[in-house]
Amino acid sequence: MTNLVTEVADTVSETPESVAISFNGNEQTYETLWERTGQFAAALDERGIGEGDRVGIYLPNLPQFVTAFYGTLRAGGIVVPMNPQYKAREISHLLSDSGAKAVVTLSANAEAVAEVQSDTDVNTVVSVGEPAESATDFEAFLADETLPLVERADDDTAVQPYTSGTTGTPKGVLLSHHNLASNTRSNMTLLDPPIGPEDKLVGTLPLFHIYGMSAVMNAAVFTGATYYPVAEWDPQVVFDLIENEEITVMYGVPAMFNDMITQPDAESRDLSSLRFVNSGGSSLPMEVLETFEDLFGVELFEGYGLTETSPVTHANRPDARRKGSIGQPIEAVDAKIVDQDFEEMPRVAEGPVDEEEMDLDEIVGELVVSGPNVMQGYYELPGANEAAFTEEGGKRWFHTEDLGYWDEDDFFFVVDREKHMIVTGGYNVYPREVEELLYEHEAVADAAVVGIEDDRRGETVKALIVPAPGYEPGEDVTAEEIKQYALDNIAEYKHPRQVEFREELPRTTTGKVQKYELRKES
Predict the structure, then answer these.
(1) What is residue 509's predicted lDDT score, i.e. its pLDDT?
(2) Distance between terminal CA atoms of the chain?
(3) Dihedral of CA 125/169/213/456: which sign?
(4) Sign of CA dihedral 249, 254, 255, 259
(5) Residue 302 above 70 pLDDT?
(6) Which of 327, 201, 282, 240 is nearest to 456 (CA)?
């Protein structure tokens, strides 16, 4: 394989007239998609953007995202996907760190790009939607001619998504053409029969996230299936799509499935066309899983993965399933549970165990994984790369920083996270980023952010704030004011949904906030 896009080219040659994308009633064939990716690639080439250059895609799930994604790869470039909910301060680091030369954005977000553009290498801005100043309309940007596919090696970087570690500093993840292609192929085999031309995949997962990009979009175009992008999550819209279009495959996060089962008309909805439904992104509550299956008569399978692993490493499947488990390692992936000395932890006979009766310290360790799906490394961060990997037994093992145990049937169970990361509705929120923003508010003297349980999202964000001198809670500063301040500066899912004022925060003797105490009290 020379380029991930060769998979698309193969599909086009086999099924040129099949529907590749169906969006709001408008259909696009594979032949048309291929033509448009070539025109996008040629337009980049005309502007001197090509092999090894980064292109930011700052869009929700739209057909233009698909065109820009494969068009960038076709030109030999590297895709830098960006959450369309991000504000200017959030995209600034992604663009400057990656060195992106172009950005494809919603017109509504073009102003955010313009605000930070002078601090980046971006010289080309393409907009989708209404006309935007300092941006070229997407359709006008496409060239008249197409660019032949630029060859790339298997280990060349194809996509550079950003993720954050415990420090909250976004890190570029280098995923190669082979990383993504191998994981997409392995993930497709979870179904029996595997995903094929007759399948219809609903795009509820955001394409800026590797889960939606790899497990859904790539899976569809690799096989000639039809992809139905959903620009904004709405359970009623998705219900209608499944019923009217007879959708066969759905990937989602627990919050989506919780939304579906709590709809007032859930019992009357017909999801019988679905032959495979998968949940990932965060732990799936057993109550949500069982209610979903009872209501719709469709099995809901839980899986596990990370941005750094392209993303899927574990999954339950029709012929190998254990409720409460993240499943077994998928094809080509190795995994194990190790202690601090990288020695394997003992397996239990069969999970899940009764955590009240079992001494978890005797069986719980860190989950580490190895395989062709594991990233090349973090972009220009040698220290982080050294910490992320261990060479052992002739393999390169990635440290997930998630804690769990395994059983003799090779089912894995995640019990906690070493990171302080908050997972809300499938999105990762890093407390330090929110805390630093809160510290900028004139009424905040001290702040801590923790994740607390939430029935719908799994976790939600809570801020504990010590007011600055002269600011009386409820009078000079209110919880609603703090929430709105956060909403104005960071993505909606990151903002504190609960704000509590305190006279002081519990700290250790070395000055660190005792977040475990705050979580217990919340």
Answers:
(1) 44
(2) 52
(3) negative
(4) positive
(5) yes
(6) 282
Instruction: Quote the tokens at residue 444.
Output: 């905040």
- Alpha-carbon 221 to chain mean position: 19
Is residue 81 within 8 Å of 87, Cβ to Cβ?
Answer: no
Q: Which domain holds residue 376?
A: 327-410
- In total, how many domains does the chain have? 3
pTM metric for this prediction: 0.88
Of 116, 149, 176, the domain-final residue: 176
CATH of the domain at 340: 2.30.38.10
| Gap between the Cα atoms of 159 and 442, Å rounded | 39
- Same domain for 142 and 14, yes or no, is yes
Q: Which amino acid is at 458?
A: G
Q: What's the rounded Cα separation, in Å, for the pair 192 and 187?
A: 11
| Helices marked H in 160-274 | 177-188, 210, 219-223, 235-245, 254-261
Clarify whether residues 342 and 474 are in a common domain.
no
Distance CA 72, CA 75 (A): 5
- On whether both 431 and 360 belong to a single domain, the answer is no
- Identify whether 376 is part of a domain: yes
Measured distance CA(153)–CA(155) in Å, rounded: 5
Nearest to 220 by CA among 37, 18, 57, 76: 18
Tell me, yes or no, whether 274 lies in a domain.
no
pLDDT tens string 29-67:
999 999 999 999 999 999 999 999 999 999 999 999 999
Alpha carbons within 13 angstroms on the beta-carbon side of residue 350 total 3
